[in-house]
Design goal:
There is one protein chain. Helix content is about 35%, strand content about 15%. The chain has helices at about 15-20, 25-30, 55, 70-75, 105-110, 130-145, 185-195, 200, 210-220, 245, 275-280, 295-300, 330-335, 340-359, and strands at about 5-10, 65, 80-85, 95, 120, 155-160, 225-235, 255-260, 260-265, 285-295, 300-305. A hairpin with a 2-residue loop joins β8 and β9 (about 260-265). The longest helix is centred in the C-terminal third of the chain and has 20 residues, at about 340-359.
Amino acid sequence: MKKYNDIIFHSGNCLNNKKPFSRGCSRCIENCPHNAINKKKEINLQKCTECGVCTAVCPSDGFTYKDMKSFQRYLFNSQEIIVNCPAAQPLGYEIPCLGMLDNDAWTTLLLLTEEKPVKIFTGDCSNCQDKLAGLAVKSILAEINQQWPNHPTVHIEDLPAEEDSAEPLNSNPIKMADNRSRGSLREQGRDQLKMLFPAIQAEETYDIPVTRQWLKGILEQNSEKKVPYYALVADDKCTSCGVCSKICPQNALHQVNEENRHRLVYEPLKCVQCGRCAETCVPKALYFNFFNFDYKYLTGKILLIEPQVTYCKQCGKQLLYRNEDSLCPACASIGTVPKQMMQAEAGNSKNVISKGDAL
């Protein structure tokens, strides 16, 4: 029995390891159709079928297909793109399953169809052990159709492998008219080394997921092209507390305070839509929505909001959320207290502390 190792876990890419969170990301575990991933992000080689769902749902390339860089060179450098799954006839570049392709990957493939022929061949998905991965693909494509109704189309055809096929299904054939599309000899050698020693590749850490790099590359070549992108939005309820920028594991949010001006700056390219910022926002000022982005917006820095900061009218502390009384929770709990009394109590507290320090 084959021991599957084409799916790599990059520990340093995992959001939970980048910046711990009270409710850590577990999309890989929750979405694995074969229950092959445990809480330590270890893969049960007896259960894993390399359907790739874990790589598609992981927002930061914690789990990824180990040949993604080679696949990238094929997509961008070949004059014609032909991709097939192991259950289909081996006519092109074989990937473990279409389930490994996330939203960014499919968007890139759709844009590539405007430059060259793109064909994808599958086996009989309805009878495949990874049919749940096929359903996940349909869900992604349905969302793309909804947000981008006039997008280019990719030719996808059911073409099951023949029983007497001369080539083994898992041979991962790469048939290209131009061998230069495989990259330099040095790149090939480096990839071969990583394939032989998966632990070396698993130690790699990078900020931008590979398929996001694909999208960036194709939009850079077509700077006027716009595609739907799930981006962060901030509304007037923002109080500039700064919590969102502190808990963002991708450093995609920055709070900039200059000359009494508070700004929240957003970098879409780094954002992996994990949702931690919106989840922890006390005033519920952050949410995600689809926008048409071109290369400039995807790779730029966007001023989300320049909020009006409010302070407690009693103690002067910055309010994390606004209320009708303009009081912080501490002042609100003791009621309205004359400012002179607050200052006197503050002075007494300082004297006590000073005496304690002297002792």
